[in-house]
Amino acid sequence: MSEVLDKPNLFQRLMPMLRGYDWPLIFIIGMLAAIGLTAMYSAGFDHGTRFSDHGRNMLLALGILLVVSQIPPHRLASFALPLYGLGVALLIAVALFGITKKGAQRWVNLGIVIQPSELLKIAMPLMLAWWFQRREGALRSADFVVAFAILIIPVGLIMKQPDLGTSLLVMAAGLAVIYFAGLSWKLIIPPVLIGAIGLLLIAIYGHHLCEDGMDLVVLHEYQRQRVCTLLDPTRDPLGKGFHIIQGMIAIGSGGLMGKGFMAGTQTHLEFIPERTTDFIFAAFSEEFGLAGNLLLIFFFLLLVWRGLAIAMRAPTLFGRLMAGAVAMIFFTYAFVNMGMVSGILPVVGVPLPFVSYGGTAMVTLGLALGILMSVARSQRQLAREQAPRL
Length: 390
What we know:
By secondary structure, the chain is an all-alpha fold. It has helices spanning 2-6, 10-18, 23-44, 50-69, 73-77, 80-97, 117-134, 141-159, 164-180, 185-209, 221-231, 242-253, 265-268, 280-313, 317-341, 359-386, and strands spanning 99-101, 104-109, 113-114. Helices cover 70% and strands 3% of the residues. Strands 1-2-3 form a three-stranded antiparallel beta sheet, with helices on one face. A hairpin with a 3-residue loop joins strand 2 and strand 3 (113-114). It is globular, with a radius of gyration of 23 Å.
């Protein structure tokens, strides 16, 4: 009888696993997931099983989050080199015998068709964080040169596919780690100034860039067309400019409070292309207006803030770099998606986290959040161990 009474119940067995979770982060994730499900139900209720599949993808991401969050950061660091090496090898395989769809060679068949560039969204910051942790206390300028080489190799392979959107996300994640590792402002300011001057020149002389017959070595033709469409969507209103024009119409027609849940005419009359994936922000804006957009942006900013707060308190350099990189990954995702839908950035095919439909992207985000939660748990566990015992 005593053995039966002393046997822990299910709740008692689960408590050690739940201890140390960052509950503010969980609340923010829950709110973004609720907004995403609401938007997907409205935009995709007549798209077969899109809503149920979106919910399934969220549950899968949650499972990955819970599993990865149980792994201490120093164990996660041991996966950095193998994941990075595997990712680069698969990118080379894509370049040699990858599958081409819609003019892009981004997939490889390994029994199942996969897109290796998605792996680098996590493997890249993981690898760079591992590299800088190994150099902690003895960091030199040459170490940053090696870090940039680690970053450029996969980014170059991804751009060659070509896949501008994914290459930008991988580059942003890597640059965030390099910046948080202590890159000098003397090295940051020159490329920023060059980029700003380049954007100014494009804005002034963009019409020459878009002239027929213009051939730019630095850009693929489809990339040049995207820049030209951004500068003037009306030059091809029923073709390449259709996405941007319809997205801006939907966002503007939402007004302050929106047309109401499932009442968006641009959305349900199918004027918005890809309304459940890349352009779901336009559908959300039409139905929930500026108020809904501000709420969505508020929770994304909260997520970024919480990630940076976790990074500041992380007990190791690896944890600080990874948590900071994850926070900037979510910022980049949200900023680029909202920017391209609203017509201030080129259309590059970047999903909106929690809101856009996509199984691979959701799994990647679940993995990133799991790493962030792992860093938060390690900090809380260290605080408990160092707390004076009465």
